[in-house]
């Protein structure tokens, strides 16, 4: 499989369709060799090929985490990149891996949270997704839950309703108190009534847990 020729940049495709189709082909063939080539292309001199490669890698990860899991430390290193597209793409890859390998991703929490705090909204979105997955994994909840609460406290107001909604599956009788108090403490910051209602709805659901 000629990796470069199947990337969107090589095909003159300005959409992501080619990259998604390539990811699906890699998953179907269980093609570890193509994954290795894509990892190498993350350092290619051509920006478009770098961006295509990270896109294909996290799309593969969403479909079959095992295919990219062994390269997780490459993605961890990329969390410090100044290139926003590569940084959030790496976080998306780690988010995909966390679905099946939460214990491996838990080892990277310091770097994940640092990138969430300094990176783009998309980087933070995926970091929160990772923390939620770790909370659903009993070996990681004690580490991840306090970090999730910190994200609720510091997240942009626009993201707050989504984060609150996504956190509901990890809320139980023991931890719901701090969750509710955290959301209540930020309600006055929410200007849009629709967003405030979403948060209030989450609070009501949490109260019944």
> Which sheet architecture does the biggest sheet show?
none
The residue ranges in which pLDDT falls below 50 over 5 or more consecutive positions are: none
Strand fraction equals under 5%
Q: pLDDT average, as an integer?
A: 95
Number of strands: 0
CA-CA gap between termini:
51 Å
Give an account of the 3D structure.
Helix content is 69%, strand content 0%. The chain has 13 helices and no strands. The mean pLDDT is 95. It has 209 residues and is an all-alpha fold. It starts with 7 loop residues before the first helix and ends with a helix. The chain is elongated, with a radius of gyration of 19 Å.
What is the secondary structure topology, with strand pairs?
Elements (H helix, E strand, L loop, with lengths): L7 H4 L5 H13 L2 H10 L5 H17 L8 H7 L5 H15 L3 H5 L2 H10 L2 H15 L5 H14 L5 H8 L8 H11 L6 H15 L2
Short recap of the structure:
With 209 residues, the chain is an all-alpha fold. The protein is built from 13 helices and no strands. α2 packs across α4.
């Amino acid at each position: 499989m000629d990796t470069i020729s199947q990337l969107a940049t090589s095909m003159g495709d300005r959409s992501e369709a080619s990259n998604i189709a390539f990811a699906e082909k890699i998953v179907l063939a269980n093609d570890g060799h193509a994954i290795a080539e894509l990892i190498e292309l993350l350092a290619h001199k051509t920006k478009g090929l770098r961006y295509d490669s990270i896109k294909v890698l996290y799309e593969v990860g969403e479909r079959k985490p095992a295919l990219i899991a062994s390269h997780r430390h490459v993605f961890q290193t990329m969390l410090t990149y100044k290139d926003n597209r590569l940084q959030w793409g790496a976080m998306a890859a780690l988010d995909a891996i966390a679905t099946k390998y939460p214990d491996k991703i838990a080892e990277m929490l310091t770097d994940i949270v640092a990138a969430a705090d300094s990176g783009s909204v998309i980087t933070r979105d995926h970091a929160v997704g990772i923390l939620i997955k770790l909370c659903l994994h009993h070996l990681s909840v004690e580490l991840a839950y306090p970090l999730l609460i910190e994200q609720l406290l510091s997240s942009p107001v626009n993201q707050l309703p989504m984060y609150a909604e996504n956190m509901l599956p990890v809320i139980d009788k023991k931890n719901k108190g701090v969750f509710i108090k955290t959301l209540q403490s930020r309600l006055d910051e929410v200007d849009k009534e629709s967003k405030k209602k979403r948060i209030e709805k989450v609070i009501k659901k949490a109260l019944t847990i």
